[in-house]
Amino acid sequence: MVTAAESGLRLDLDLFDYLILVLYFGTVLGVGFAARRAIKTSADFFLSGRSLPAWVTGLAFVSANLGALEILGMAANGAQYGLLTLHYYWIGAVPAMVFLGIVMMPFYYGSKVRSVPEFLRRRFNRPTHIFNAISFAVAQVLIAGVNLFALALILDALLGWELWVSILVGAAIVLTYITIGGLSSAIYNEVLQFFVILAGLIPLTIVGLVKVGGIDGLFDAVRSGPLGDAALHTWSNTGSSADNPLGANWIGILFGLGFVLSFGYWTTNFAEVQRALSAKDMNAARRTPIIAAFPKLLIPAVTVIPGLIAVITVKGLGADEGDLTYNNAIPLLMRDLLPNGVLGVAVTGLLASFMAGMAANVSGFNTVFTYDIWQAYIKKGRSDEYYLRIGRYATIGGVVIGIGTAFIASGYGNIMEYIQQLFSLFNAPLFATFIVGMFWKRMTPWAGFWSLVLGFIASLALYVAYLTDAIAFNSALEQSFWGAGVAFVTAVIVAVAVTFFTPSKPDDELRGLVYGLGGTSGGEVIVSGEKVWWRNPVVLGVTAVVLALALYIPVW
Amino acid sequence: MAENDQVDEKKLSAAARLFDVRRVIGGLFVVYGVIVTLIGLFDSQAEIDKAEGVRINLWMGLGMLVLGLLFLLWLRLNPPKTPDPSDLDTDDDRPPAH
C-alpha cells in the first residue's frame, strides 16, 4: 500500500495547528460529558427529547449531510464533472428538502414515530417494517464506512500512517465521541462543526481563486483544459448524454437525480429526518429542512469550485489510484495553498465533519437496531435502561462493522459514485413506497412490502448488469440515475398492482399517517397557519426553491 | 397533571442546555480568532507567498473573531429563558396549555 507520506500528500502541521485541533476536540468532549449528565431517558438519548429551536436543528440537518459525502465527494465530482456537480445541490437537494418540510414532516412529527421504519410498520405491516429496518441498518453501516474511509484519508495525510491504522484509530475516536454524548451532543456538535468547516473551506477557496486569477481565470483555464467548455454549463449540453462530462442527459438528471435519488435521500433518510424530530414543535420541525436548504444553496461555492481549482492547479489529478485520485482534491489544495493557522482550522473542520458524518450514520443505525429490530422482534417489553444499554452495544457493533465497510469504500476512486450507488439501491424504492403510501390510502400493507422488495431487486439487477457489461452507461453516475429511476417505477407499478389483489387497512388505523384523513397533531395542513412570514415553512420553502432556480441562470 | 409538569421541566432543562450552543460557538471562535489573527500578524514571507500573497491568516482570524463576538452578543441580548416558563411559551408556537 502506498502511504501519503511517500508521495507527498502529507500536510505539515505546526504547534498552533495542533493547538486548534486540540481545542476543538476538547470543547466537543466537554459538551459530551455535560450532555451525558443531563440525559435521563432513552428518548433523550435517541431524539434529544424534542426540545431544540429550529435554527439549531436546521444547521444540524445540513451539517449531518456535510460529511465525507459533501466535502471530498463533491470536490471530487467538481474536478471530474465540472459545474454539472451543481445539480446535486440545486436540483438534487433543495427541492427535496423543501418538500420534506412542507409536505412530509407533518406525518413524521405528528405521528410521533421514532424512526422511518416505525412509520412503515404503522402504515403497512411488519414484513415491510423488518425489510426496511434491515436494509436501512445495512445502508447506514455501508455509508458509515465511507465516512470512516474519508476520516482515515485525512489521518493518513496528516500523520503518514498506513490506511488500515488510520481506519482503526478513526473508528476508536468516533466510538468515544458517540458513546460519550449520544445524539444530544451530536446535534450540538454539528452546529459548532458547521461553522468550523466553513472557516476551513472559505480560505481554501479564496486563496485558490487568487491563484487561478478569479472566477474568470478559473473558467478560462477549465475551458482550455481537458474538461472543456461543457464542464462550465449545467443544462445547455444535456440534450444528449454524450455531450457533457457527467454523461447524463436532462431526463436522467431531472428524473433520476432531481426526483428519485434526491427525494429518496432527503425525505426517507432517517439520519437526516431524526434531526427534525428533535425540534421543539411541529412548526420548528417543518422549518428544520427548509432552514437547512439555504446554506445548502451556497455550499458548492466551497466544494465544487475548489474541485475545479484542483483540476487546474494540481498536475496529474484524476489518477485511478494513489494520492492523485479525485477524492484527494481538497487535501491536496490544503497542502499547496494554506499556511499554518488556517491550515489547522481546515484540518479540524474536515476531521470534525467526517467524524460527525459517521456518528450520524451510527446513531441512525443504533436507533433502528434498538427500536425496530431488537425491541420489536427479539426482546420485547424490557425496561428503558435495558434498551439504552442495547443502544450503546449497537453503537459499538455499528462502528466495528463500519471498519469493514471502510475497506469496501477504499476500493472506489470516487467515493461519490459509490455513495450514489448505495442510494439508488436503498433509498429510491423506499421513496416510491412512501410517496404512494402517504397519498393513496387504499394502498395495502402487502403492496408496501412487495413494492419495496421488488424495487430494490430492480435497482440491484441494473447495477449487476452494468458491472457485468450487459448494459453500457456513459458513467457510473449515469447508471445510478437510471438505477434509481428503474427502482422507482418498478416500486410504483408493483404498489398499484398488488393493491388490487390484497385487502386495504381501515381508515381508522391510517389516521395521521396518510394524507387527507386528518389526525396529525393539531390538524396540520400543507398550508401552514403561521402568522409571522419568516417562520412560515411554505414562504421559506418557496423562497429557497426560487433562489435555487435563480442561481442556475449564470451557469446555464 | 404531575406528568405534564415533569415533561415541562425536562423541556426547560434541555432548552437551557441547548440555547447555550451560542456560548460554545462564540467562545471557540473568539479563541480561534485571537490565535489565527496573532499567527497572521507574525506570518513570514514564505507563508504569505504560499497563500498567493493573501494575508489569509490575518483576514480569517479577524473574521472568526467577529463571528465569535456576534454569537456572544446574541447570547447577551437574548439570554436562555430557563427561569421563566412563560417566556418559553411565547417563543414557540404551542398553545399555552399544551
TrEMBL record, chain A:
Keywords: Membrane, Transmembrane, Transmembrane helix. It is a multi-pass membrane protein. InterPro entries: Na/Glc_symporter_sf (IPR038377), Na/solute_symporter (IPR001734). It comes from the Bacteria. It is found in: Membrane. PROSITE patterns: NA_SOLUT_SYMP_3. Belongs to the sodium:solute symporter (SSF) (TC 2.A.21) family. This is Sodium:solute symporter family protein. It comes from Paractinoplanes ovalisporus. The lineage of its organism: Bacteria, Bacillati, Actinomycetota, Actinomycetes, Micromonosporales.
Automatic annotation (TrEMBL), chain B:
The keyword Transmembrane helix applies. The chain crosses the membrane at residues 21-42, 54-75. It comes from the Bacteria. Keywords: Membrane, Transmembrane, Transmembrane helix. This is Uncharacterized protein. It comes from Paractinoplanes ovalisporus. The lineage of its organism: Bacteria, Bacillati, Actinomycetota, Actinomycetes, Micromonosporales.
